[in-house]
Amino acid sequence: MVCERDPLVQKVCELYEQISGLESLKPSKDVNMLFTQLVVTCMPPSPIDVTKLCKRIQEIRSKLIRLCGEAEGLLESHFSTILGSYENPLHHLNIFPYHSNYLKLSLLEFNILTKHCSNVPSKVAFVGSGPLPLTSIVLASFHLTTTSFHNYDIDPSANSKALQLVSSDPDLSERMFFHTTDIMDVTNALKDYDVVFLAALVGMDKDEKVRVIDHLAKYMAPGALLMLRSAHGARAFLYPVVDPCDLPGFEVLSIFHPTDEVINSVVIARKFPMTKHSADQQQPMKLPNKFFDIEMFNPLNHVNLMEELDIQEQLSGSF
Protein backbone atom coordinates (compact mmCIF):
# COMPACT_ATOMS: atom_id res chain seq x y z
CA MET A 1 0.00 0.00 0.00
CA VAL A 2 1.36 3.41 -0.99
CA CYS A 3 1.46 5.79 1.94
CA GLU A 4 3.48 8.56 3.57
CA ARG A 5 6.94 7.09 2.84
CA ASP A 6 6.72 7.75 -0.93
CA PRO A 7 8.62 11.02 -1.64
CA LEU A 8 6.02 12.19 -4.16
CA VAL A 9 3.19 11.55 -1.70
CA GLN A 10 5.14 13.39 1.01
CA LYS A 11 5.55 16.42 -1.24
CA VAL A 12 1.87 16.40 -2.23
CA CYS A 13 0.86 16.22 1.46
CA GLU A 14 3.15 19.15 2.32
CA LEU A 15 1.61 21.23 -0.46
CA TYR A 16 -1.89 20.22 0.64
CA GLU A 17 -1.16 21.49 4.16
CA GLN A 18 0.02 24.82 2.75
CA ILE A 19 -2.86 25.18 0.29
CA SER A 20 -5.52 24.24 2.84
CA GLY A 21 -4.09 26.90 5.19
CA LEU A 22 -4.57 29.74 2.69
CA GLU A 23 -7.14 32.39 3.60
CA SER A 24 -8.37 32.54 0.00
CA LEU A 25 -7.89 30.54 -3.19
CA LYS A 26 -8.39 33.59 -5.41
CA PRO A 27 -5.44 34.25 -7.75
CA SER A 28 -2.52 35.75 -5.84
CA LYS A 29 1.24 35.33 -5.68
CA ASP A 30 1.05 32.64 -2.95
CA VAL A 31 -1.88 30.78 -4.53
CA ASN A 32 -0.24 30.75 -7.95
CA MET A 33 3.10 29.60 -6.52
CA LEU A 34 1.65 26.72 -4.50
CA PHE A 35 -0.58 25.39 -7.28
CA THR A 36 2.28 25.67 -9.77
CA GLN A 37 4.45 23.60 -7.41
CA LEU A 38 1.64 21.05 -7.07
CA VAL A 39 1.22 20.71 -10.84
CA VAL A 40 4.98 20.43 -11.41
CA THR A 41 5.15 17.73 -8.70
CA CYS A 42 2.33 15.68 -10.20
CA MET A 43 3.06 16.19 -13.91
CA PRO A 44 5.93 13.72 -14.59
CA PRO A 45 4.82 10.20 -15.59
CA SER A 46 4.45 8.18 -12.40
CA PRO A 47 3.62 4.52 -11.67
CA ILE A 48 1.60 5.56 -8.60
CA ASP A 49 -1.88 4.04 -8.39
CA VAL A 50 -4.17 6.28 -6.34
CA THR A 51 -6.54 3.37 -5.65
CA LYS A 52 -3.80 1.79 -3.54
CA LEU A 53 -3.26 4.82 -1.29
CA CYS A 54 -3.91 4.38 2.42
CA LYS A 55 -7.11 5.88 3.83
CA ARG A 56 -5.48 9.05 5.20
CA ILE A 57 -3.89 9.88 1.84
CA GLN A 58 -7.14 9.02 0.04
CA GLU A 59 -8.90 11.63 2.18
CA ILE A 60 -6.20 14.21 1.48
CA ARG A 61 -6.48 13.49 -2.24
CA SER A 62 -10.27 14.01 -2.17
CA LYS A 63 -9.89 17.32 -0.34
CA LEU A 64 -7.07 18.39 -2.66
CA ILE A 65 -9.16 17.73 -5.79
CA ARG A 66 -11.90 19.97 -4.35
CA LEU A 67 -9.37 22.70 -3.52
CA CYS A 68 -7.97 22.46 -7.05
CA GLY A 69 -11.48 22.69 -8.46
CA GLU A 70 -12.30 25.75 -6.38
CA ALA A 71 -9.03 27.45 -7.29
CA GLU A 72 -9.50 26.65 -10.98
CA GLY A 73 -13.00 28.13 -10.93
CA LEU A 74 -11.76 31.32 -9.26
CA LEU A 75 -8.86 31.61 -11.73
CA GLU A 76 -11.18 31.22 -14.72
CA SER A 77 -13.67 33.70 -13.26
CA HIS A 78 -10.88 36.22 -12.65
CA PHE A 79 -9.58 36.05 -16.21
CA SER A 80 -13.04 35.90 -17.75
CA THR A 81 -13.84 39.21 -16.03
CA ILE A 82 -10.64 40.76 -17.39
CA LEU A 83 -11.27 39.41 -20.89
CA GLY A 84 -14.86 40.64 -20.79
CA SER A 85 -13.61 44.20 -20.38
CA TYR A 86 -12.05 44.15 -23.87
CA GLU A 87 -13.97 45.20 -26.95
CA ASN A 88 -13.06 41.88 -28.62
CA PRO A 89 -12.39 39.43 -25.77
CA LEU A 90 -11.51 36.51 -28.07
CA HIS A 91 -8.54 38.46 -29.46
CA HIS A 92 -6.91 38.41 -26.01
CA LEU A 93 -7.37 34.82 -24.84
CA ASN A 94 -3.61 34.37 -24.62
CA ILE A 95 -3.52 36.41 -21.40
CA PHE A 96 -4.96 33.33 -19.66
CA PRO A 97 -1.92 31.46 -18.24
CA TYR A 98 -3.06 28.03 -19.47
CA HIS A 99 -4.28 29.12 -22.90
CA SER A 100 -1.64 27.06 -24.73
CA ASN A 101 -2.64 23.96 -22.72
CA TYR A 102 -6.23 24.37 -23.88
CA LEU A 103 -5.08 24.73 -27.48
CA LYS A 104 -3.19 21.42 -27.17
CA LEU A 105 -5.97 19.63 -25.27
CA SER A 106 -8.62 20.79 -27.74
CA LEU A 107 -6.51 19.64 -30.69
CA LEU A 108 -5.97 16.29 -28.98
CA GLU A 109 -9.69 15.91 -28.33
CA PHE A 110 -10.54 16.89 -31.90
CA ASN A 111 -8.07 14.33 -33.28
CA ILE A 112 -9.54 11.64 -31.02
CA LEU A 113 -13.04 12.62 -32.08
CA THR A 114 -12.25 12.38 -35.79
CA LYS A 115 -10.96 8.81 -35.32
CA HIS A 116 -14.34 7.72 -34.01
CA CYS A 117 -16.82 10.10 -35.66
CA SER A 118 -17.45 9.68 -39.39
CA ASN A 119 -19.35 12.97 -39.80
CA VAL A 120 -18.77 16.46 -38.44
CA PRO A 121 -21.11 16.73 -35.44
CA SER A 122 -23.87 19.27 -35.93
CA LYS A 123 -24.65 19.77 -32.23
CA VAL A 124 -22.31 19.32 -29.30
CA ALA A 125 -22.98 19.72 -25.58
CA PHE A 126 -20.33 20.75 -23.08
CA VAL A 127 -21.32 19.97 -19.49
CA GLY A 128 -19.62 22.15 -16.88
CA SER A 129 -18.43 24.88 -19.25
CA GLY A 130 -17.70 27.47 -16.55
CA PRO A 131 -16.97 31.20 -16.87
CA LEU A 132 -14.15 30.67 -19.37
CA PRO A 133 -15.32 27.96 -21.82
CA LEU A 134 -12.01 27.67 -23.65
CA THR A 135 -12.56 24.14 -24.96
CA SER A 136 -15.81 25.13 -26.66
CA ILE A 137 -14.29 28.37 -27.96
CA VAL A 138 -11.17 26.69 -29.37
CA LEU A 139 -13.08 23.79 -30.93
CA ALA A 140 -15.68 26.12 -32.44
CA SER A 141 -13.07 28.57 -33.73
CA PHE A 142 -10.50 26.19 -35.23
CA HIS A 143 -11.78 22.62 -35.51
CA LEU A 144 -15.58 22.33 -35.60
CA THR A 145 -16.32 25.52 -37.48
CA THR A 146 -19.91 24.66 -38.46
CA THR A 147 -20.96 22.93 -35.24
CA SER A 148 -23.27 24.52 -32.67
CA PHE A 149 -22.11 24.29 -29.04
CA HIS A 150 -24.55 24.08 -26.15
CA ASN A 151 -22.74 24.89 -22.92
CA TYR A 152 -24.30 23.81 -19.63
CA ASP A 153 -23.37 25.22 -16.25
CA ILE A 154 -25.26 25.35 -12.97
CA ASP A 155 -23.84 28.79 -12.08
CA PRO A 156 -25.66 31.77 -13.67
CA SER A 157 -22.71 34.12 -13.11
CA ALA A 158 -20.39 31.68 -14.95
CA ASN A 159 -22.72 31.63 -17.95
CA SER A 160 -23.11 35.41 -17.87
CA LYS A 161 -19.34 35.88 -18.02
CA ALA A 162 -18.97 33.22 -20.72
CA LEU A 163 -21.66 34.83 -22.86
CA GLN A 164 -19.87 38.17 -22.57
CA LEU A 165 -16.77 36.62 -24.17
CA VAL A 166 -18.51 35.47 -27.37
CA SER A 167 -21.30 38.04 -27.75
CA SER A 168 -19.15 40.43 -29.82
CA ASP A 169 -18.02 37.70 -32.23
CA PRO A 170 -20.40 37.49 -35.22
CA ASP A 171 -19.73 33.78 -35.81
CA LEU A 172 -19.50 32.28 -32.32
CA SER A 173 -22.39 34.35 -30.98
CA GLU A 174 -24.58 32.50 -33.51
CA ARG A 175 -23.24 29.01 -32.68
CA MET A 176 -22.61 29.07 -28.93
CA PHE A 177 -25.49 28.75 -26.49
CA PHE A 178 -25.45 28.84 -22.70
CA HIS A 179 -27.89 26.97 -20.48
CA THR A 180 -28.04 27.65 -16.75
CA THR A 181 -29.26 24.37 -15.31
CA ASP A 182 -28.19 21.26 -13.44
CA ILE A 183 -27.39 18.62 -16.07
CA MET A 184 -29.30 16.10 -13.90
CA ASP A 185 -32.46 18.05 -14.80
CA VAL A 186 -31.78 17.82 -18.56
CA THR A 187 -33.45 14.78 -20.14
CA ASN A 188 -34.87 14.73 -23.68
CA ALA A 189 -32.62 17.58 -24.85
CA LEU A 190 -29.61 15.29 -24.41
CA LYS A 191 -30.84 13.18 -27.33
CA ASP A 192 -30.13 16.12 -29.68
CA TYR A 193 -26.34 15.97 -29.32
CA ASP A 194 -23.93 13.97 -31.47
CA VAL A 195 -21.18 14.47 -28.88
CA VAL A 196 -21.31 15.31 -25.17
CA PHE A 197 -18.19 16.61 -23.40
CA LEU A 198 -18.06 16.19 -19.62
CA ALA A 199 -15.70 18.58 -17.84
CA ALA A 200 -13.18 17.13 -15.40
CA LEU A 201 -14.65 18.93 -12.41
CA VAL A 202 -18.29 17.91 -12.93
CA GLY A 203 -18.61 15.37 -10.15
CA MET A 204 -15.52 15.83 -8.01
CA ASP A 205 -15.74 12.45 -6.32
CA LYS A 206 -16.43 9.02 -7.73
CA ASP A 207 -20.06 8.81 -6.61
CA GLU A 208 -20.97 12.23 -8.04
CA LYS A 209 -19.21 11.47 -11.32
CA VAL A 210 -20.91 8.09 -11.71
CA ARG A 211 -24.35 9.64 -11.06
CA VAL A 212 -23.79 12.14 -13.88
CA ILE A 213 -22.48 9.44 -16.25
CA ASP A 214 -25.47 7.20 -15.48
CA HIS A 215 -27.80 10.11 -16.26
CA LEU A 216 -26.06 10.73 -19.58
CA ALA A 217 -26.24 7.00 -20.39
CA LYS A 218 -29.99 7.09 -19.80
CA TYR A 219 -30.78 10.12 -21.97
CA MET A 220 -28.09 10.50 -24.65
CA ALA A 221 -28.94 9.31 -28.17
CA PRO A 222 -27.88 5.72 -28.96
CA GLY A 223 -24.58 5.85 -30.84
CA ALA A 224 -23.69 9.35 -29.58
CA LEU A 225 -20.16 9.94 -28.29
CA LEU A 226 -19.20 10.90 -24.75
CA MET A 227 -15.83 12.57 -24.16
CA LEU A 228 -14.64 12.73 -20.58
CA ARG A 229 -11.56 14.05 -18.88
CA SER A 230 -9.76 11.89 -16.42
CA ALA A 231 -6.29 11.69 -14.85
CA HIS A 232 -3.47 9.16 -14.71
CA GLY A 233 -0.61 8.47 -12.29
CA ALA A 234 0.21 11.30 -9.90
CA ARG A 235 -2.02 13.65 -11.91
CA ALA A 236 -4.91 11.92 -10.12
CA PHE A 237 -4.07 14.12 -7.12
CA LEU A 238 -5.37 17.04 -9.21
CA TYR A 239 -8.44 15.60 -10.96
CA PRO A 240 -10.91 12.73 -10.52
CA VAL A 241 -10.19 9.47 -12.34
CA VAL A 242 -12.77 7.91 -14.67
CA ASP A 243 -12.29 4.15 -15.06
CA PRO A 244 -13.88 2.03 -17.81
CA CYS A 245 -16.01 0.32 -15.15
CA ASP A 246 -17.58 3.73 -14.40
CA LEU A 247 -19.17 3.74 -17.86
CA PRO A 248 -21.91 1.09 -18.02
CA GLY A 249 -24.15 1.87 -20.97
CA PHE A 250 -21.16 2.98 -23.05
CA GLU A 251 -18.59 1.19 -25.18
CA VAL A 252 -15.19 2.59 -24.19
CA LEU A 253 -13.31 3.30 -27.43
CA SER A 254 -10.02 4.85 -26.33
CA ILE A 255 -8.23 6.30 -23.33
CA PHE A 256 -5.44 8.80 -24.00
CA HIS A 257 -2.89 9.69 -21.35
CA PRO A 258 -0.89 12.78 -22.38
CA THR A 259 2.64 12.84 -21.02
CA ASP A 260 3.34 16.52 -21.66
CA GLU A 261 2.00 19.62 -19.88
CA VAL A 262 -1.60 18.74 -20.80
CA ILE A 263 -2.70 17.34 -17.44
CA ASN A 264 -6.00 15.64 -18.26
CA SER A 265 -6.39 12.21 -19.77
CA VAL A 266 -9.15 11.90 -22.35
CA VAL A 267 -11.67 9.05 -22.45
CA ILE A 268 -13.99 8.59 -25.42
CA ALA A 269 -16.97 6.24 -25.30
CA ARG A 270 -19.99 5.51 -27.46
CA LYS A 271 -23.52 5.14 -26.12
CA PHE A 272 -24.63 1.61 -26.86
CA PRO A 273 -27.22 1.25 -29.62
CA MET A 274 -30.54 -0.08 -28.44
CA THR A 275 -32.30 -3.09 -29.88
CA LYS A 276 -36.11 -2.97 -29.93
CA HIS A 277 -36.24 -5.57 -27.17
CA SER A 278 -33.60 -3.86 -25.05
CA ALA A 279 -35.16 -0.43 -25.58
CA ASP A 280 -38.33 -1.71 -23.94
CA GLN A 281 -36.32 -2.86 -20.95
CA GLN A 282 -33.87 0.09 -20.97
CA GLN A 283 -30.95 -2.32 -21.22
CA PRO A 284 -28.03 -1.50 -23.53
CA MET A 285 -27.07 -3.99 -26.20
CA LYS A 286 -23.60 -5.34 -25.55
CA LEU A 287 -21.36 -5.04 -28.57
CA PRO A 288 -18.95 -7.80 -29.61
CA ASN A 289 -15.92 -5.49 -29.72
CA LYS A 290 -13.94 -6.42 -26.62
CA PHE A 291 -10.89 -4.20 -27.00
CA PHE A 292 -10.24 -0.54 -26.52
CA ASP A 293 -7.06 1.46 -26.89
CA ILE A 294 -4.96 3.01 -24.18
CA GLU A 295 -2.47 5.45 -25.62
CA MET A 296 0.33 7.29 -23.88
CA PHE A 297 0.41 10.44 -25.96
CA ASN A 298 3.26 12.92 -26.08
CA PRO A 299 2.82 15.39 -28.94
CA LEU A 300 6.26 16.84 -28.24
CA ASN A 301 8.16 13.80 -29.43
CA HIS A 302 5.38 12.06 -31.38
CA VAL A 303 5.74 8.86 -29.38
CA ASN A 304 2.58 6.78 -29.27
CA LEU A 305 2.72 3.71 -27.08
CA MET A 306 -0.43 1.69 -27.52
CA GLU A 307 -1.50 -1.34 -25.65
CA GLU A 308 -4.78 -3.21 -25.95
CA LEU A 309 -6.52 -4.30 -22.82
CA ASP A 310 -9.29 -6.80 -22.48
CA ILE A 311 -12.36 -4.68 -21.85
CA GLN A 312 -14.14 -7.62 -20.30
CA GLU A 313 -11.78 -7.49 -17.33
CA GLN A 314 -12.19 -3.74 -16.97
CA LEU A 315 -15.96 -3.94 -17.16
CA SER A 316 -16.52 -7.16 -15.22
CA GLY A 317 -19.73 -6.90 -13.31
CA SER A 318 -20.71 -3.58 -14.89
CA PHE A 319 -23.61 -4.89 -17.02
From TrEMBL:
It catalyses: 3 S-adenosyl-L-methionine = nicotianamine + 3 S-methyl-5'-thioadenosine + 3 H(+). Keywords: S-adenosyl-L-methionine, Transferase. Its EC number is 2.5.1.43. GO terms for biological process: nicotianamine biosynthetic process. GO terms for molecular function: nicotianamine synthase activity. It comes from the Eukaryota. It is an enzyme of class 2 (transferase). The keyword Cytoplasm does not apply. Pfam families: NAS (PF03059). InterPro entries: Nicotian_synth (IPR004298), SAM-dependent_MTases_sf (IPR029063). Signal peptide: none annotated. Belongs to the nicotianamine synthase (NAS)-like family. Synthesizes nicotianamine, a polyamine which serves as a sensor for the physiological iron status within the plant, and/or might be involved in the transport of iron. This is Nicotianamine synthase. The gene is LOC110415545.
